[in-house]
Amino acid sequence: MKHTTYIVLGILLLLFKSCIDDGPGNFNEKLINASFNPIDKVFLVTYENGESETLDAQLNSTVSPTTAEVTLKNGTQIYVKDASEAGEIIFEGKGSYTSITYDNSSGSFSIFYDSGFSETLKAKKVTDLDTITAIRLMSDNSIILCRISNPTEEVKRITNKGSITSASFNIEDENSFFTLRYGSGYKESVPANVDHSTNPPSADVTLRNGFQLYAEDATRSGEATVHTDRPINSVNKWIFDNMYVYYLWNHKLAENPNYSLSPDNFFYSILNTYNAASNPEGDRFSWIQDNYLELQESLSGVVSDEIGFEYIFVRLDESGTQYYALVLYHRSGTDAEAKGIKRGRWITKIDGQNITPNNYRELFGGSGSKTLSLADWNLNSSTGEYYLKETGDVTIQMHAKYAENPVYFDKVITKGNKKIGYLVYHFFARDKGDDSNSYDKLLMQKLTTMKSQGINEMVLDLRYNGGGAVSSAIALASALVKDRSTKNILVTSQYNSIIHAEMNKEYGSDYNKDFFIDRVQGTTISIPALNLPRLYVLTSNWTASASEFVINGLKPYMDVIIIGETTYGKNVGSITLFEEDEPNNKWGLQPIVVKYFNSKGESDFTAGFTPDYEVDEFADLYLYPFGDSNDPMLGKALSLITGTTRSTSVKAVHTPFRSSQVERLATERMLKPYRFDMQDDIRGEEIKRVIKK
């Protein structure tokens, strides 16, 4: 019996040894080489026994840039800092450098470690007059360099680049740049600003540390002058320093921008500029304002020089030399409302002047009184078509510090056994900036009333909603979602690597997840659970950011039927940055700092959400009141809900105007910045507190 036991144990040991020795990546084999393929998103690893394998990378898109990592069978975790390039492989146990060689044919360094691990990394070539140096910055902040213009030059590794000793100006392939030299031998290139107003053209650049490089003759390469006593623009330095910490694309900021620009021009010069063809994921939304107090107010819907109604411009002819303004809706509590300026009315002149591309800003802005020339549609009974009839002038007062309530209109529509809630919501805001949560409270009251009336379908009208506070968006989505659970993720937020590291350290890896909630965040305001079977959303090209946030967040949990036009396409949010205690700096920044994903990891709507049912509310530029079933967008939703077609008793509208005459560019220019913004008020202030700490 004893012998039998020994035999069985022996077999089991052999089987165990066979299992752990079987195949690459086993517990007994050491990693000796690895690389990352950024195209296929895979790691190529080789072990001490000579076997190799290809492993799919796990991507972490909650940081910017996205990182890639994988865990080997022996428990070793390897990763790269940027999944878009074949970067340095980082892991514990790589050991110390033993030798480094440079291959000029491939332009790469081969780096060997005392653990037996090796890797090959691409070098950056830096030109300095008649010399070319290959340089690579490593994860430990050391620098590897080799003067490749000298075939006998040995590879050097330096741990400190030292101070700037001199600089040169270089021209290569029609590109102009300065090369900085450091005491260690390290060199780096900086794009030059060429001034063609001088003869010969000169070149300069101001570095982040305030040093200025200058070349008298930008037509030829030569030595450059280094000025260490030129003052740097303090506001621009503040802008750059904050963008370096908070900006979503901080890894794409220029190292040495032109600090001589005005603050607004400087801000826009450093952005990761959007280009539909070459950079579709770029920045379209960061902005700056010369008064941070006005910036803060605008985000809560508090604006100066308010005329009292929202409108679009309509061209009278193809050349666009004259506009009419069509009123989309009046703003409650304004003089315009009191004077009968309501949805669907036309403004043909202001103060007796035609509205043109050159004067529309002046006519619709400013203070004091405005005389509006009005017109309305009238039916020509003989032709069956509508025409605009002048209805006289009215004088209205402009408003200063007007606060718009976004909870605009609500109604319960009964159609057979369907009780349909209808809500017009114009932007997302908790309150008018007074911390009262008045707008969120009113929104929840309206939804609670709808629930008490037994609604079983919902139409959410976001056609003019350009965004706003994330907290209000989370509250609204929590009320509308089917089978609400506070354990379900509504959204995951992606920040840059600096913010991610600090917030992860402070709060753990789930810091960037937002779940459905039962109460408005930071309040005792209850959120009703409407538990809708589906949601109908009315959209336009102006439906943006927080509106799209709600649509995207709800899609994994319920059917969201979109009616209208393709939405704007904004999946990112911002925070407000300013210096409250600096009297010489009143600028306010609203940079993009976060990208939002739903529970399925989806955030691919930069081109907007395409409607399930396309409806053009401006087809004839005849606008019905909100809640009127003749409104083509609401009418389409009602027909889908009830399974019936729109009433044939409604006469078709025919006007001489068409949607093609809407001057969207001019209209967008008149819209306030907050109309296309999404503020990260959930953790924006907390992020600033943690970063400052």
Which descriptors apply to this entry?
5 domains; 33% strand; 13 helices; 693 residues; six-stranded antiparallel β-sheet
Low-confidence stretches: 4-27
How large is the radius of gyration? Answer: 31 Å
How large is the share of residues in beta strands? 25-35%
Question: According to CATH, what is the class of the largest domain?
Answer: Alpha Beta
- Please provide the count of β strands: 44
Give the helix/strand class.
alpha+beta
Short description:
The chain has 693 residues and is an alpha+beta fold.
What does this structure look like?
This protein is 19% helix and 33% strand. With 693 residues, the protein is an alpha+beta fold. It has five domains: 1-92, no CATH class; 120-227, no CATH class; 234-299, no CATH class; 308-396, PDZ domain (Pdz3 Domain), CATH 2.30.42.10; 402-573 and 592-692, Alpha-Beta Complex (2-enoyl-CoA Hydratase, Chain A, domain 1). Strands 17-16-15-21-20-19-18 form a seven-stranded antiparallel beta sheet, with no helix packed on it. Strands 24, 25, 26, 27, 28 and 29 form a six-stranded antiparallel beta sheet that branches. Strand 24 (309-315) and strand 25 form a beta hairpin. Helix 8 packs parallel to helix 10 (546-554). The longest helix is centred in the first third of the chain and has 20 residues, at 2-21. The chain is globular and about 95 Å long.
